[in-house]
Write a structure and sequence with these properties.
194 residues; alpha+beta
């Protein structure tokens, strides 16, 4: 009986082994003091690069510590770096993450004071693009700038960074669709894909 129970336990452990190696499980653990020290140093280096206007370097340095510990301040400064590089949609995601962390109970009074204004400033600059498909088109593949879009974003306003973009769509039995478009700051555009 014991041998049978041991085999079941062994089988269970073997089955769970891949899940035990996933980063999500390790992310839930508290960082060590050494990891926190590294995160603080990277964040300080990021802030120094930010103060010097080296936005790409600052974004890289501010992004790294979020893998160790996630704070509203780190997300706020990462958003600022993205914003300064024209990655407005990415900045919105980071500002929203800072808000989520604050709403989840993290304290960051300095960030909280600046967050709403920063988010609204970026939101006003982001372009919105709504892609419309004919109702009889099924199983379509749509790409924006070479990246596949989920079907769930079709037909709804999608935030897009201002600038030039390439749009393509493919569906079996249909002529491929391709278009270059330029979206201005804060522009709202609806584009039928035919």
């Amino acid at each position: 009986m014991r041998l049978l129970a041991s085999r079941h336990l062994l089988a269970l452990l073997v089955a769970l082994a891949p899940a035990l190696r996933t980063p999500a499980l390790f992310a839930a653990t508290e960082p060590t003091p050494s990891e926190l020290n590294v995160a603080r140093r990277l964040f300080d280096e990021g802030r120094a690069a930010e103060d010097a206007g080296r936005w790409h370097e600052a974004a890289d340095k501010c992004r790294q510590p979020t893998a160790i510990t996630d704070t509203p301040g780190m997300r706020f400064h990462l958003a600022r770096c993205d914003e300064e590089q024209g990655a407005l949609v990415e900045a919105l995601v980071e500002y929203d993450r800072a808000r989520e962390l604050i709403d989840g109970g993290m304290r960051a009074a300095d960030v909280e004071k600046l967050l709403t204004g920063a988010r609204e400033r970026v939101r006003a600059k982001v372009a919105l693009l709504t892609l419309r498909l004919p109702s009889d088109v099924k199983n379509v593949s749509v790409q924006l700038d070479g990246k596949a879009l989920s079907a769930s974003v079709l037909g709804v306003p999608m935030p897009i960074n201002p600038g030039k973009h390439r749009l393509s769509a493919f569906s079996v039995g249909r002529t491929p669709f391709a278009r270059e478009l330029t979206l201005g700051t804060g522009e709202v555009q609806e584009l039928p894909i035919e």
